[in-house]
Design a protein that fits this description.
The structure holds 2 protein chains of 2 kinds. Chain A has a domain of about 210 residues. Helices cover about 70% and strands about 5% of the residues of chain A. Chain A contains 18 helices and 5 strands. In chain A, α3 packs antiparallel against α4 and α14 packs antiparallel against α16. Chain A is globular and about 60 Å long. Chain A starts with a helix and ends in a 22-residue tail after the last helix. By secondary structure, chain B is mainly α. Chain B has 2 domains: about 55 residues, no CATH class; about 45 residues, no CATH class. The chains are: A mainly alpha, B mainly alpha. At the A-B interface, α7, α9, α11, α13 and α15 of A face α1, α2, α3 and α4 of B.
């Protein structure tokens, strides 16, 4: 008998979201009939939200701990309850499978969701409402499901759930037709993305007869238009959701959750791409195309940083830089994974770099969101970033911003350094010009970041007027938690790579390197060799 | 990487990269100083940072900013941009897979 912790960690936020939305619906109906306004108490709402986030974090931590000792785990529900062993004649299919990649991603996501939740609870300018809480929980459930999914259909379902949550966070529940029409293009694009992914899933199922990633990776796919079309239909929505995640919102909690969603989209992207790139012929131009996408993002980031003064635009620019580097690392990793020589020379480094960049993207994006949204707060008719010499009043925020900028730019010895160095090393095997380009862009990122830091926080202080409401206290707790993560990772890079990056990269190579026919199920399958079940 | 992290190579790597960063960083600091000094010297009050002319390092950046604000950002913030972007990504991917193995 196994306790299905991953399953429970999905059910809990989903149930919370459904209950809250149902209550909202009920209250709306009651209001229409009687005109009486009934609201859920703010304190119970906040307490239950905090409790759900805490429990979810604890569960993902236990799942990650279990995984580190037991290898890949799957969970099936049969006549005898939950189990992680299956008989060969069993009609039961595993509901989910957790590997190094999924367990670690879910843990990082739940920690950042908890920190974002703390910020959302303390945000007076954007108070927590029942609907917003429900959409936070729904997004969290969807993203966690993406991390624990082991097949395309489940991925599609959780993609839809996370999109529903993110859409709700973006605009809330539309109360009038005009609101719906205003967001028509946004809604159409998101719906189209999910539908394209579903079409790709079904098309690939027709070719392979399975939704399971491991079985798809093991299948020798023919070179044909349906398979290639399926690849396009699966990858395009994920790339779109990764590249176009952030909206111009001055709410740190929502911004953090958009970051969580972008990270999940990239996770799904490299899971799909690594499963298909090996067995499917005709994808030899894909790494180059991903590199082009990365270069476009970097170019746009440079353009976007030119003379930018708005904090939210600045945060978006820094995220664009990170995304560009991640796509280029993905393209190098992809081209260097399918031959032994390439793996030994640069493929492994590129994959390590990609995972490390992807791993630090979320905490850094969350820290940037929290700081930059704080800079948009209005005090005495002016936004905080418009007051020169802000650093004298908010030294901790200034230090945190500095640390984030150094880490994002890959300045040694901060946490982003190892990933950038590995990327430069891997890129050297592709072209020296590429290394120079990446290094120059890194330096430009550092330049823009430092300039923004100095222009907002340093200089002659103009705080002779009453400065009530300016200080570090508002964002102290979430920032301290995030900075503890950065400090730990910066002080112990070896441990970080050993515990987090290396198993994840190995898991990715393992899942993508199966090129033989699908294995027959043994008499009693153990968690370690259960890769082929769905 | 693990091997290097476990041994003293990591320290040398950090130092060598730090050296490169320090040289480039010195140039950067000068650039940052030059770009910010103007702003703080001229306007040191509320709305200071919104006066963005002090944030320009050189004329090229000013032109880039003008180009971005006039042409790029209006396109990227237009409502239909979401659908256009999805379509462009899908078309590029489709073109790439169709060219795969054909010599193009």
């Amino acid at each position: 008998m196994t306790y299905p912790l991953p399953f429970l960690s999905l059910c809990l936020p989903f149930a919370g979201a459904v209950v809250l939305l149902a209550m909202r619906l009920y209250h709306r109906l009651v209001y229409r009939k009687s005109g009486e306004v009934k609201n859920i108490g703010r304190v119970p709402l906040k307490l239950s939200f905090l409790l759900l986030l805490l429990v979810n974090m604890a569960m993902t931590y236990v799942v990650w701990l279990r995984f580190s000792g037991a290898g890949s785990m799957f969970y099936a529900f049969g006549g005898n309850g939950w189990s992680n062993t299956l008989a060969p004649d069993s009609a039961v299919r595993a509901m989910m499978q957790v590997d190094a990649l999924g367990a670690m991603s879910a843990l990082v996501m739940s920690v950042v969701a908890f920190i974002a939740g703390l910020r959302a609870l303390a945000d007076k300018a954007n108070p927590l409402t029942p609907s917003k809480t429900a959409f936070y929980l729904m997004t969290m459930c969807g993203v966690q499901g993406i991390f624990y999914s082991n097949n395309l259909l489940a991925l599609c379902i959780f993609l839809f759930i996370s999109q529903a949550g993110a859409t709700g966070l973006y605009r809330g529940v539309p109360s009038a037709r005009s609101e719906l029409l205003d967001d028509a293009w946004y809604l159409v694009s998101r719906l189209l993305a999910v539908l394209l992914f579903l079409a790709g899933t079904l098309l690939l199922f027709r070719s392979c007869g399975t939704y399971n990633f491991a079985q798809i990776a093991a299948a020798q796919l023919r070179h044909g238009t349906p398979q290639l079309t399926a690849f396009v239909l699966l990858s395009a929505p994920l790339l779109f959701l990764f590249m176009k995640n952030s909206s111009y919102v001055a709410d740190a909690g929502r911004r953090c959750f958009f970051g969580i969603r972008a990270q999940a989209a990239f996770f799904a992207l490299f899971r799909v791409v690594f499963s298909l790139y090996g067995p499917m012929t005709g994808l030899d131009k894909i790494p180059v195309l991903f590199a082009v996408f990365g270069a476009v993002l970097l170019g746009y980031a440079v353009l976007s940083a030119a003379g930018e003064t708005d904090p939210l635009r600045f945060a978006e620019t820094m995220e664009l830089f990170m995304k560009g580097f991640m796509l280029i690392a993905l393209s190098i990793g992809l081209s260097g994974t399918y031959s032994a020589e390439a793996v030994a020379t640069y493929g492994g480094d590129a994959l390590d770099s990609m995972i490390a960049l992807w791993l630090i993207y979320l905490p850094l994006s969350a820290a940037l969101s929290i700081i930059c949204c704080r800079l948009k707060d209005v005090v005495d008719g002016a936004e905080l970033w418009q007051i020169s010499g802000l650093g004298s009043k908010t030294p901790a925020t200034c230090a945190a911003m500095g640390l984030v900028i150094f880490a994002v730019s890959g300045l040694p010895p901060f946490v982003g350094y190892s990933s950038k160095q590995l990327l430069f090393r891997a890129a050297e095997h592709i072209s020296s010009l590429l290394v120079i380009l990446l290094f120059v862009v890194s330096m430009m990122q550092l330049l823009f970041g430092m300039r923004y830091l100095v222009s907002v926080f340093f200089g002659r202080a103009s705080l002779s007027r009453d400065s009530n409401g300016i200080g570090d206290a508002a964002i102290a707790l979430p920032l301290i938690l995030l900075l503890l993560l950065f400090t730990g990772a910066s002080l112990m890079p070896g441990r970080m790579f050993q515990k987090f990056i290396a198993p994840t990269a190995e898991s990715l190579i393992d899942s993508s390197a199966r090129t033989g026919p699908p294995a027959q199920a043994p008499a009693e399958q153990t968690p370690q060799d259960a890769g082929g079940w769905d | 990487m693990l091997h290097e992290v476990a041994t003293g190579f990591y320290v040398w790597n950090v130092l060598s990269w730090l050296f490169i960063f320090v040289i480039t960083g010195a140039v950067l600091c000068l650039a940052v100083y030059l770009s910010v000094r103007t702003r703080n010297g001229r306007i040191a009050h509320v709305h200071a940072a919104s006066e963005s002319r002090g944030m320009q390092l050189w004329d090229l950046e000013k032109r880039l900013r003008g180009f971005r604000d006039e042409y790029v950002r209006p396109c990227l913030t237009a409502p239909h941009w979401h659908v256009v972007m999805l379509a462009v990504i899908a078309l590029l991917l489709f073109a790439a897979v169709m060219c795969g193995g054909t010599g193009f």
